[in-house]
């Protein structure tokens, strides 16, 4: 059975390793430096913010998944809150076993419990398998996303 919980600083090495364990982000993270001050500062900022959660999924004591949840208030849609799912990762040796689906379902229920009207996420355009995964779970492609890189 998968157990979901807020991440702790002790989970940071596993989280960084999971972020690197993905074809679209391989090499972007450095799992050899999981306690890099930049990772720690980011973790601390998330941990202090009541509208942010870093979540881990455990299976038999092993961290097998991670995701970040963000709660965004908005004036549009008569003050609707949005739940945003970011950085969803499942250990590569366990993909295809419905762990990702359980993670997304858990996140959606977490958003409902916090009163969110919408759940949303972005996925890189090249991650076609992920797109099929989200569509199987009932998510729809509704917007185009744009990014502007601010640092080299």
Describe the structure.
By secondary structure, the chain is an alpha+beta fold. The chain is 32% helix and 24% strand. It is built from five helices and five strands, in the order E-H-H-E-E-H-E-H-E-H. The protein has helices spanning 12-20, 37-48, 76-79, 99-113, 128-136; strands at residues 2-6, 52-59, 62-72, 82-90, 118-121. Strands 1-2-3-4-5 form a five-stranded mixed β-sheet, with helices on both faces. A hairpin with a 2-residue loop joins strand 2 (52-59) and strand 3. The longest helix has 15 residues, at 99-113. The radius of gyration is 15 Å and the shape is globular. The termini are far apart. The model has no long low-confidence stretch (mean pLDDT 93).
Q: Indicate the overall shape.
A: globular
Tell me the total number of β-strands.
5
Low-confidence stretches: none
Strand arrangement within the widest β-sheet reads 1-2-3-4-5
Q: What distance separates the N and C termini? A: 42 Å
How many H/I helical runs? 5
Helices and strands, in order, run as EHHEEHEHEH
- What share of residues are in beta strands? 15-25%
The main pleated sheet reads as: 5 strands, mixed
Estimated structural class: alpha+beta
Radius of gyration: 15 Å
Mean pLDDT: 93
- As a percent range, the share of helical residues equals 25-40%
């Amino acid at each position: 059975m998968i157990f979901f919980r807020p991440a702790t600083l002790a989970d940071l090495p596993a989280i960084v390793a999971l972020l690197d364990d993905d074809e679209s982000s391989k090499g972007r993270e450095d799992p050899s430096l999981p306690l890099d001050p930049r990772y720690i500062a980011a973790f601390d900022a998330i941990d202090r913010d009541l509208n942010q959660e870093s979540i881990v999924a455990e299976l038999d004591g092993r961290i097998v998944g991670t995701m970040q949840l963000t709660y965004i208030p908005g004036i549009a849609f008569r003050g609707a809150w949005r739940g945003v799912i970011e950085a969803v990762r499942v250990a590569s040796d366990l993909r295809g076993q419905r762990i990702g689906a359980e993670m997304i379902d858990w996140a959606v229920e977490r958003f409902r419990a916090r009163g969110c009207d919408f759940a949303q996420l972005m996925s890189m355009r090249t991650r076609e398998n992920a797109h099929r995964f989200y569509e199987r779970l009932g998510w729809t492609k509704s917007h185009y996303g744009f990014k502007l890189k601010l640092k080299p």
